[in-house]
Description:
By secondary structure, the protein is mainly α.
Amino acid sequence: MTRAATLLPFAGALTTHGDPLYFHGVGWFVWVVVVIKVLVAFAVLLVSVMLMIWFERKLISDMQSRIGPNRAGPWGLLQTLADGTKLFFKEDLLPAHADRVVFKLAPYLSLVPALLIFTVVPVGGIISIAGHRFELQVADPTIGILVVLAMSSIAVYGVMLAGWSSGSKYPLLGSVRASAQMVSYEAALGISVVTVVIVTGSLSTRAIVQSQASAFWDWNLIRLGIVPFALFLVAITAELTRPPFDLTEAEQELVGGFHTEYSSIRFALFFLAEFMNVITMSAVVVTLFLGGPDGPVPHIASFDIWFPSVWFLGKVFLFLFLYVWLRAALPRLRYDQLMTLGWKYLIPLSLGWLLAVAGFLVDGWWGAGIIVAALAVTGLIVRAFTIGRSRSEEHPLLAPVGARVTRPTLVAAVPAVAGPGADAGRAAAPGGTPTRGTGSGDTAHQGEGEGSG
Length: 453
């Protein structure tokens, strides 16, 4: 038997990869399972958002030695529900100069992509009900990662259009910042995802999880060298406009940013989308780099069905804690720092690491050569940045950003009334430049001035 014939069943398995629910056609049972999957995913996300808001408020209050919500429900668990109910019944305002259609559409452009991203994330293994096997995942398209990237890009349009359609300057500035963040961080985000894809050999999220299921050291976090994971985490935090990258809603500068003109339920939808995006993107990070629901399962009956979901929830919870910790610990970056981080550091580093990983996949010598070339290019770039910075410091036209601007030291004018102190000042001035005298002459002149007044 030839090698091609030996690999044929494996190749067929790859091409037919997908949810086993559809292997025997689409009947009424399949439709029921799909509808239940969608409803359960939607309900889980809504409840998770409520718990996430409560968790963030309680954790930040603990970090700041406060109590946090503790009135509505046990331990304040129902405070988010109370706030949402209050916002639902508030007056819905529409600015006079707003674009009515776009203004009303923008909140949904932020919310719907967050829901769709979660549908392609595997949250568990494969279970069997009534002789039908299916994945704990709403959908498993062969281009799942492209769906995630497309939806994350569309979510930014909600912020951009909300600021533009409000007919106000401060929301417009927030939307412009959102577009700049998207352009600068989407490139690093996409390159980090490409690094995972070329190692896995598939765009399916389920296939990416299965490629990491052999052992702990097969997680993409380890076998890719941690750097793509760190770059993806920073880029997705900026994409979500979470602190310290929340420049689109900088209330100290923009009076609330892109959502300044929103009220009532539409205002609540933006924050619902923000926290939902935090949860879904934490799930995406776990899927790409930490093996998704992969983890050791005890040899106990039925544990292999639900225990992978416990691993998945535990990993997601770690990232939710990290996002809250960053919000409580880090100050907001300046706009120039945000752009510098994206264009000067994240994009070159992610591109160089992608080339190195691709080189090692081809051949070890290719990888070593790419690393040497990348280090040489990095040295040239660092040298160019250093020379440019030194030149700007030697010949400043404006004060450096963040530097204290003080009044320049002015040379005092020549006293109006001549006297001994003035003669002494003229004699002591270098180059014959008259300066203000010191001593009894100044006192006498002050007395004369006060007397004449």
